[in-house]
Recover the amino acids of this structure.
């Protein structure tokens, strides 16, 4: 059976989880698959069904920014851009005719958000060890041009969407996108907008990083027990200490501005391809 396949490459820190949980399941007359562990089994169950439109979304398609060694602060040859390339090659092999959708956000905002996520997942590196030449995230890892050129090389039909625009316009941005481009109704009421992320910020992030250095080396049985009790360092900083919500460090704003300025041409390159609503 010929089936139209749409693939959302969940670029990190572009609200992929929000879309997967609250928006994509509401696409009318569309089989929707997501979740790495069950993706293949879901696919096997869906291939014999009559619906001729399949929507697949997963963050892993965009590659892994780090591995377990990097979380421990151990330098190794894992690179985000290499991971992205390999995953894209696999995606092309399995779905060569897919229509691809991907979001991009400003480089500086992406980098700072990635660093926060790194610490929340157990990372131990200070920022100066996290980003830079021959560091965990290198400047070339932030290249949108590389990703755009590779996607256009591998797939005939790619939509490059602006995360900043989605944040500003809310759910209606995607509702209009699916209606205009695919004649798919996104069955949502109202127009929710992304709330500001109140994750681990400011001084709490640095405290968590220091705790991670010791917590990561606890025996697995001990960590499993702590996890069951819900008192991991991350859970304590994210949920148990909500009364303390320090502002983001001023240096983060400076870094964002500096990185965004450095990658102005790369952002302009994205803008030359980005999707614009035809209203």
């Amino acid at each position: 059976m010929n089936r139209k396949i749409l693939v959302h490459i969940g670029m990190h820190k572009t609200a992929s989880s929000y879309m997967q949980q609250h928006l994509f399941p509401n696409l009318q007359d569309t089989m929707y698959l997501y979740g790495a562990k069950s993706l293949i089994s879901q696919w096997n169950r869906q291939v014999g069904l009559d619906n001729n439109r399949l929507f697949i979304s997963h963050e892993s398609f965009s590659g892994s920014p780090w591995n377990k060694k990097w979380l421990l602060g151990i330098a190794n040859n894992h690179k985000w851009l290499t991971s992205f390339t390999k995953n894209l090659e696999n995606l092309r092999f399995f779905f060569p005719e897919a229509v691809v959708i991907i979001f991009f956000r400003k480089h500086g905002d992406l980098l700072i958000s990635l660093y926060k996520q790194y610490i929340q997942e157990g990372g131990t590196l200070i920022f100066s060890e996290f980003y830079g030449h021959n560091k965990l995230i290198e400047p070339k890892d932030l290249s949108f041009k590389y990703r755009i050129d590779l996607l256009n090389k591998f797939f005939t039909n790619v939509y490059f969407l602006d995360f900043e625009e989605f944040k500003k316009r809310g759910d209606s941005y995607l509702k209009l996108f699916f209606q205009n481009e695919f004649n798919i109704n996104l069955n949502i009421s109202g127009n929710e907008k992304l709330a500001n992320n109140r994750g681990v910020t400011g001084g709490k992030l640095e405290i968590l990083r220091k705790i991670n250095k010791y917590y990561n080396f606890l025996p697995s049985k001990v960590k499993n027990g702590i996890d069951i009790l819900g008192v991991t360092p991350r859970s304590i900083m994210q949920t148990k200490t909500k009364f303390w919500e320090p502002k983001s460090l001023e240096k983060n704003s400076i870094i964002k501005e500096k990185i965004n300025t450095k990658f102005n041409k790369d952002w302009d390159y994205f803008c030359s391809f980005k999707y614009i609503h035809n209203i």
The two ends are 34 Å apart (CA to CA).
